[in-house]
Structures
1.
Amino acid sequence: MSAIVCSHVDKSYGATSVIRDLNLSIEEHEFVVFLGPSGCGKSTLLRMLAGLEDISGGEISIGGTVVNDLDPGDRGVAMVFQNYALYPHMTIFDNIAFGLKRQNVPKAEIRQRVGAVSTTLGLDPYLDRKPAELSGGQQQRVAIARAMIKTPKVFLFDEPLSNLDAKLRNHMRVEIARLHQSLNTTTVYVTHDQLEAMTLADRIVLLRDGRIEQIGSPAEIYERPGNLFVAGFIGTPNMNFIDVTIGRDGDAWTLTNAGTVFTISGERFRLQQGERAVLGIRPPDLVAASPGASGNLLEGTADLIEFHGNDALVTFCLGGKEISALVPSRACPAIRADVRYGFDESSLHLFDAQSGMSLRRQ
Amino acid sequence: MPRRSSLPVTFVVPTLVILLILSMVPTLYAIVIALQNRELSSADYSYVWFSNFYDLFSDRRFLNAVWVSVKWEIVTVAATMTVAIGLGVLMFEVASPRLRNIYCLLFIIPVLLPRVSAAFVWKFAYHPLYGIATYPYRLLTGGMIFDPLSKPATALFAVASVDVWQWGLFFAVIVLKLLETLPRQPIEAARLDHARSWQIHAYVTLPMLKAPLVSLMFVKMIESLRSFDLIYVMTRGGPGVATETLDMYAFSQGFIESGKVSYASAMAVLMMVATVITFTMLWKRVQA
């Protein structure tokens, strides 16, 4: 049985539509990440699951129960907020125990359950303190403890790591992943950070303008983006896009951009002669070509080199467009040197220029 | 370190001196008079030191005035805060933002009225025959007369209700604005934590607003001490001595009944000392 089902869900504020006809089903024990740029409706959708926003149309069910008109407390969900949302005047113990007290759980049981949760999250030394006396990471852990103690059917995380510094963010990300491994509770996690999405998710739901662009495992979304938006959004550094015209050359297909012609077998794609398309190639898939090499080559003058540590990002111009290649830093060319990069056809992506949809055969 | 300039001192000192003279001279003069036996009817006087104070403690009317003052203080402060918090929370929970603004505007109007005007308006409203506030009673009982201002049991509350009408509504606006400044997330977290609306306010929002609410209460306590004009217009301390607060009694001793200015001053000095001590203690207590 699915843990969460959204069918034909709409959300609008007055005339402004935020989410349109959204259909989604989340399996039990699954870790689903809503990913998308700011304003794509991902947080709104999460808040609709939590019951903090009204549902304008459609139906949401959690654990088989339609929850459209249920109060947030009655939905069996627990939420972790971006800015922790702790009760500032209560001690950590009271913060964690607040929900249980409201449900009239016996005192002894509250003490025992808070103890268990705080031990799991390493909060034992802080139970008597106030939230303001804790660091950001500890406060977020309290927020997670407060969510955990209710043993919810679904965990909702609303950008929980955005307020933490980079190092702590990595650390907490690992903790959340561990926690999910041990608790195995269905989890919906909202973020705009694709690294978090890629590392944590069983499935990523990529949203834009209130619509689902693609649903899939992190690998699926990275390797087989369904459209131009997904291809451009996922992956750091960003995918290179080159406008091409499709042509035929004997058995092979040609992709022409100004002076450059790429020849491919095109078996993986649905191609049509004369069609305009966008060729996509990820920077790490570009490899330096040996001096005598021929075939599919991208040539230019390196005009920017960004050192990343192990790798370096080489940017050059091709037909007026910036192209980047991620190369090992020891093989990094000098600035303003002529560079030539080749690629393997298997790492190629092709999209329809008009609709933006992938031309890959299903 | 930049060179110390004498400019700030030049500006601050004259103002401070004027303020000091304005506040200290009458205070010291009142203390001096309290130690004498001046009366309005004669120019002769001598120092009697503390005999005015001794007399006060055997004056039953004075003790009544102390009790009325304490009652007045407790009733008005408690009722104002209750009304303010109750109405503020109610507006926050029920009213749309647009409606809230309209309510706020309406609720600020009473406090803008000069207190004497408010007192007269309500004195008429409480009129047993023509008053709008007593109209429902006349209607329900078929024309029986109810005069809240001339019954010892109700007079104090009737006058206090005017004070609450002015300040409770105004404070409700402040409480609403305070609630609106609170971050949304702890409230949402509480909703997810199975808290009902009233529990959210009892356990989350109002405790978060403890400091400003306590300050509001102190403002009201100080304000309630200055209720002379309201009581003077509405009841003049009556019926009998039912609404005679300390300042009313001091005024009537000093200027209306017997002209015993020294006796009245002694009362004023006692009141000042008691107020300073009480407020200092409360303030320390709250801050601890």
Note: Chain B is about 75% helix and 0% strand.
2.
Amino acid sequence: MNYNILKHLTLLLTHTGLLLLFAPFIHSYIKKIKAMMQGRIGPPILQGYYDLIKYFHKETVASNQTSWLFSITPFIVFSTTLAAGLLIPTFTSEEFIVSLGGIILFIYLFGLGRFFMTSSACEPGSSFCSMASSREMMFATLIEPVMLLPLFVFVCMYGTNNICETVNQLASKGVALYTPTYILSIIAIFIASLAEMCRIPFDNQETHYELTMVHEGMLLEYSGKQLGIMFFSGWLKQLIIISLIANLLFPLYTMPGFTFASLCFAVIIYLLKVLIVSTFIVFIETIVAKVRLFRVRDILMTSFIMSIIALVISVYKGKGLGV
Amino acid sequence: MASLICIKSKSLSIVASNIFAIIASTLSLISSVFSLINQHSYTLDYLVGFPFGKLELTIDPLSAFFVFMISLLVIPVSIYSIGYLKSEYLEKNIGLLCTLYHLFILSMLFVVLSGNGFQFLIFWELMTLISFAFVIFDIKSTESKNAGFIYLLMTHIGSAFLLLSFLIFGKYTGSFSFSSFHEASNLMPVSLKTVLFLCVLFGFGTKAGIVPLHIWLPQAHPAAPSHISALMSGVMIKTGIYGILRFVFDFLSPFPSWWGVFVVFIGITTAVLGIIFASSEIDIKRILAYSSIENIGVILLSVGASMIFYSFDQTVLATIALVASLFHSLNHSLFKGLLFTCAGSIVSRTHTRNIEKLGGLIKFMPKTAFLFLIGSLAICAFPLFNGFISEWLTFQTLLTLYELKPGFIKLIAPVVASLLGFTSAICAAVFVKTFSGIFLGIPRTHQVHHVKEVSYSMNLGSGILTLLCFLIGVIPFMLFPLLKNAASFIVGLDSSSNGNLQNLLTVNSRFILLGNNNFASISPLAILIVLIAGFFFIYSFSKIYGSKLPVRKEETWSCGVTPKAEFQHTPTGFSQPLKVIFSELHTPESFYHNYIYLPIVNGLISFSHKIKPLQSGVLQIYLLYIFLALILSLAWIKL
């Protein structure tokens, strides 16, 4: 077989496999570390996998009001999330599928999954599900521009729409990378990502009270395998976003040559980066309280304004504002 | 005009007239495609049969593209209306309705084909009047009458501005022919051009529905029959875009760059406000009308970007931006046609446009539900459907504005692009609300339980539109030669730099590439393959692994009581959080009425009151006026 095709196939399979295998681990890791920070013992580090196995062996019960849409939604949410996962760099920033799409596709694939998830939540006719779905849509309208603007700042600065290419360019800069524009944009992306991942201060994943649930609330009527797939897609999305932040924040890795050793090395570096970012997220979650629903707008607006400042700095850098 | 002949047999006349419409539009579709591919311009003169001179029809790539768009939508809508008219309008004056339908299509075609300013205005007015007739077709309802009045009023104010600009053109060139308008641009001073530009933008903007001139649109579109709403929203408002393109690029170029910035600003305002208004509506056709306003904003964004590029002599980039706007016009006509036809199906079965009274229709009208779902996905610009490709191109053109020198343009480019993302996120919220309100959950009223699926031809009409939305979303490459020819004609890109365009916008059977060093690229087919692969991976995995028990159906959990329809969120409740967080932007219609239109009207009335004493009715005073006028005019001549 052609060496190049073999190489790309190996990279693609490793990439997809890593995302799929590692997603439940990161979820449990975050839970565990958070419990430890709060002085609890917490669930075992492999709890995510146990949960998935449990869900897959349970019987699926669905509401009698539901239709085909409700039962295909988990599959659609999973496939859109996985497709979004193919657009971002993990342990290597080489592109796997040539020109699948860029940042806009990345955001819109999440949007497609969200459309199905929120629609299906309205299917059983439960007040909790439809309320959660309405709130999720409200978050989405705020998250999307706030997520897009800092990414667009990168697009404009580095002249490419491709996330892998952006990370490559960031990597080539070395220490000169840490400009004010870069730092502000990264903070903006991080804030928007917390909301996208349904984390505190925007949404609490561990709440057991239906009225405060947003993301979890939409899954109330799911059970068994369908619930398992929905949870898994959520964890996958979390890992994808963490990987994106990790690679934008530490674009310092290379894969010299294509050998087994270099592959292993790159994967280990990648996992380390992901763990660092996850630990940081736990830190934020521990010290910050969940905000009131309608205060979410203010936090996200702060992030939006931060990226506007980043943009102004990058445009008028060294020119003075009189231009 | 088959419908005139067979007025006697109503159902026969429906079938016959619509088949004639289909045949005619297929012919015009074919001819427009040919003229787009060959890039020829023809002028046809008919010396006889038209008042005030000869009938001058010009087909060039720009008008051919709009003919293509109109014909492409008319075919499925005509198929749809066979079933729709039979179920809805059988006891009304079918012959009149069918004749008007034909005349409406014909007037739209003649508007984009006119090669002469005078004729253009006549057909423009004809188009307005016929659509006015449709708006008031249901003459008994006061709602229709009000809608018709506002529609007529607004479009006539718009037309007055158009007439003004045509007269100024006519004064400078001595002729009403478009070819002479084209040469006039060199003669005029920049200040006059700016006045003309604003007149044209105002005049055509009223038709296109830019905020704050949009107030007629959400009233007129719901009042018309649904197949007409599909045409009005799908193609009629696009004639406004045609007018803006024709005037700005053909007659008024070259122009300063702030015109483009102004259009971008209007575009983003229209897009954001249009969709925020849609979010709190509960009338299905009003939601669609407001979302048309949003899409006009999106189209204007790339028109504005193209104007900015054009004024900086970046004709290749200007062409790409115009490809985006023409493509979005076409796509909007398809998915909006689809949604309006589906809305027509729903209204004809349930007899209500209020989505708060619906719910659970997916079980009673499964085909319509599926078609509406695809339409919603396309209008929210999700991947795999046509809206995504054109919105993606719009995003890219906005981001490419960053390449230009001025800092201000560099600054607005990403901000406007992210606001475009904001509009499409709200659009998703609006259509989740609409789709789930109509089709999902427990039926909110009893009449929903007796609803049946609509007739075959109605679903076929919407089905063709659905298929087109999907095909264009997956293989948009087929359309690019047409779009590129039309766009490069408008900005006057010569064939020598066509190779340059090839480099920037590489389209082949696999993907679209944009920019010199791979600025952006997308591969719709690969997205489809990846999504299908992911879907089947998890589907087969869940079939093979784990529990093999079938899905058990149980009652929805609602804290131990029997679930009722009232427990669900209403569509109003669904959009309430949006209304709260965007309360500053969320201005109701009365805002425009009270703060923009009313002051103008009051001002006019008080002005008339002030000049009323002039008309005292005393003969001597009138004689004095005549005398004064005589002296003044003599003095004028002397000077």
Note: The first helix of chain B runs from residue 2 to 5.
